[in-house]
Amino acid sequence: MALPAIALFIAAIFFAVKKKNECWKWFAAGVAVQYITTLINTGKDELAGLISGTKADAVTALTGEQWTTCTVVIVLAGIIMLLCRYPRYEASQTLIASLLCVLGGLVIGYIVLLVIEPSGAFEAIQTILENFLTYSKPKSQMKYLGQTLVRTAPLLMCALSVLFAYKVGMFNIGAAGQYVAGACAALFFGLYFKAPWWVCVLAAMAAGAFLGVISGALKTFCNVNVVISGIMLNWITLYITNMVLSMDGVKNPMSPYTIQLRGVNPNGLLPQMDLHTLFGNEKSVTIAIPLAVIMAIVVWVVLNKTKFGYELKATGYNFHAAKYSGMKEKRNIILTMAISGALAGMGAALLYLTGIEEWETTISSVPGMDFNGIAVAFLGGLSPIGSILSAFFIQHITLGGSYVDTTYYCAQISSLISSLIIFLCAFVGFIRFAMQNRIRKRDEAMAMRKDMAAKGGSDT
Amino acid sequence: MEQYAVEMLHITKRFPGIIANDDITLQLRKGEIHALLGENGAGKSTLMSVLFGLYTPDEGEICINGHPAKIKNPNDANALGIGMVHQHFKLVECFTVLDNIILGVEPVDKLTFLQKKQARDKIMEMSEKWGLHVNPDALISDITVGMQQRTEILKMLYRENDILIFDEPTAVLTPQEIDELMQIMKNLAAEGKSILFITHKLNEIMAVADRCSVLRKGKYIGTVDIKDTNKAELSRMMVGRDVKFAVDKAPAQPGEEILRVENMTVASRQHSNNAVKNVSFSVRRGEIVCIAGIDGNGQSELVFGITGLEPLAGGKLFLKGKNITRMPIRQRSISGMSHIPEDRHKHGLVLDYTLEDNMVLQRYFERQFTKKGFLRRGNIRQYAEKLIDQYDVRSGQGPVTAARSMSGGNQQKAIVAREIDKDPELLVAVQPTRGLDVGAIEYIHQQIVAQRDAGKAVLLVSLELDEVMNVSDRILVMYEGEIVGEFDPKQVTVEELGLYMAGAKRQTAAEETNDETVKE
């Protein structure tokens, strides 16, 4: 049904990337096919209604689900083509590359679903993309959009943590541990000391920063790779956290989870500032969301506008030159890891202090939040602002995956599809590189033609 | 029999905004050493990249041994017997010499196990035959630049290449190593290998080449027989005007002491011995003191010690009478020390930064560039534009050009501009003209002399004897971490210096004082 349309959109994008002028035809054809197939699908009655009635009927003739898919694909394809008109801007290149990756992930995910069980494949992809939109009532939609956003905030913080370290030349895979440490500190302060929320946030940041400093110090003084120390510390931190959060007064004696913060220390919860009223009174919507966005902007400003960012990036790009110019290169590396750790730790606080979930003290694997953070950072083109969008997208499809119909597919399929898309996101850099190469080649060809024309002119 | 090993006919290669090669013809005879001469940016490297398959030419054709050849990548070039020693060596730092030589053509037995013994024998034999002394088991990161280059040459010979391209091979070598290399090149040519020798050092061309082709600004100027020409003609062809080889300068008028080094000792990173041993000297206002010596005799460490990149193992440093022995690098810089580093890619520039960001690398924290922690982009841009203008730093997009994309000469000019414009009391310049063309060298020498005349103290470290003799007012020769002699350039010959540099002679303390008194 919608397949031919999607094929045409892909053709449109292909031509958009390859030749700028051809793409609109294919795009238009895709819209038309989508339109017509939908009409046919929805049955004769509506078709008859359309013929006799007004155009508005046609719009209502689309079923809700088809409408969403159709819109998503049209918007995606449209954005890509629009961006293709400005291939020279770095931001536009990154966006095109990111969107292509997302699209590629969806297509591969779709193929995987087709292989497993064709009949529900398209629906499943639709469900993943729709996430909270699968609910029909606007109020529930807003509620679950709220939940998605609540989980986006910590993901964004993890992405910021990863990209901040990356800009300074380090791959902070230890953000996972720093995130866990943040969760530990936030919950411990909130539950054990009944501390107010801001103390918990600061404690989480301090805990994350502390772990970061360990990695950073090991790197500068013993030349231990940050990745190695990071992975090791992830596990150490995880089990320490499980131990600390199993203490009396912190862990719920009846379950493996920590006590609900809402019950014992409402002050420990992040304030809502009435934001929850926007999202169907979803209680977990708090200032965490704007706070994360503000942090993204702060990170962008620090990296790009300040002397501090100038020093950090110089250190990351060329350690020796930083030393030569008298920067405190060792201090910079440790400081970077501290900040990166603080961001990850704060991310955990922004999740666990909303009361949306409790820490499971029997957990034996590091939460995936940080690893998704890596994908988010790359999908966002390593820009803090881009990460805001990509964090939302990744969280969107991750949660969307949980709505996939389990009568057709086993429960793991949701994670599989989301992870396929996340995996594809790693190719952003590659696609950008290919695009830049293409532009360079085209410029050369242009220069050649111009030169030939000039030569021809002078000959005559 | 075909007369030419390589014929590149009417090669044209365009890049956006520039024609790198414009209708260039180059014919390399079998068994000859053919020099390719041109300034930085004249198109030599592009032409060689075309020959080596890194670029496809827009027009023109290439014939190898008389047959038209399509070279699409370096593997094709290799299959046609073309080998290249790149200016920046393509070696795996953490591999041994042996591993690097056999990399890509590893001898294996039936079970694909490496047969290193066999390779080692072959390499040792070649090494003996050509006088290319290497230690096959040493790591690349541990050996001298000269030995790295010999490894590169062995790499080509191991692959039995007949057409050898040397891209500025002498830029990093000591005078003795250069002589050795020249001899090796002659031997190779005598054995029937054809050699393309890219350089802008006229002395070397006069010494070894049979013929020389000259490029200027992407255009082919001409090919001359070396026996029918001279340095002046070649340089005129290359630069398009007459070039002065001697540096014009008035006699030095040394003032008060700016830098005093007392019994300085610096540990080595390579070996357990000290790299600099108990060295004492001083540099006065208005003079250029030159440290001469063969590469690896402690000059780098001496400079690292003075500039603060390495801690001192012993001794004291004074800048304008102030003890700076333990002063951090930033403080030294603020107190009036400028440093043009030996390795512009490693220390001098942040290659991924723009030109303007690199221009303020030593001063970004000053009031005019930073306010309350925020960079003042407008002022940085203005300052960078001023320097670019004043020091004629050329780049594709002005201040926002990525430093990485600039030519070596212009990168160096940017560093020189940055360091001189800081208005230092002491300028420490280490091989400031390394890898640069005649025009750029002339310019940088003028700048250094101008600094001296403006009353600055200059400490110049150079491996090139021409530079040492021409620019300096006082020469200190370093050998194995010690200063073995002090000379007045007007009263010493290059040969005499060579003996000191090689460790065959050294002045005793008495002689030194004697020498001083003679000068007075």
Mind explaining what this structure looks like?
The complex is a heterodimer of chains A (460) and B (520). With 460 residues, chain A is mainly alpha-helical. Chain A has two domains: 3-134 and 430-445, no CATH class; 138-410, ABC transporter involved in vitamin B12 uptake, BtuC, CATH 1.10.3470. Chain A has 20 helices and no strands. In chain A, helix 5 (64-84) packs across helix 7 (121-130), helix 17 (369-379) crosses helix 18 (384-401) and helix 18 (384-401) packs antiparallel against helix 19 (413-425). Chain B is an alpha/beta fold. Chain B has helices at 44-51, 74-79, 97-102, 116-130, 145-158, 175-190, 202-208, 231-239, 299-307, 329-334, 344-348, 355-359, 377-391, 408-421, 438-453, 465-471, 494-501, 509-519, and strands at 4-15, 18-29, 33-37, 59-64, 67-69, 82-85, 163-167, 194-199, 211-216, 219-225, 257-267, 274-284, 288-292, 314-319, 322-323, 337-340, 370-371, 374-375, 426-430, 457-462, 474-479, 482-487. In chain B, the strands form five sheets. A six-stranded mixed β-sheet of chain B has the order 6-7-8-3-9-10, sandwiched between helices. In chain B, strands 16-19-20-13-21-22 form a six-stranded mixed β-sheet, with helices on both faces. Chain B has a four-stranded antiparallel β-sheet with strand order 2-1-4-5, with helices on one face. In chain B, helix 15 links the parallel strand 19 (426-430) and strand 20. The longest helix of chain B has 16 residues, at 175-190. Chain A binds chain B through residues 305-308, 310-311, 313-314, 317-318, 320-328, 440, 443-444, 446-448, 451, and chain B through 14-17, 19, 58, 307-309, 328-333, 339, 341, 346-353, 357, 361-362, 364-365, 370, 373-375.
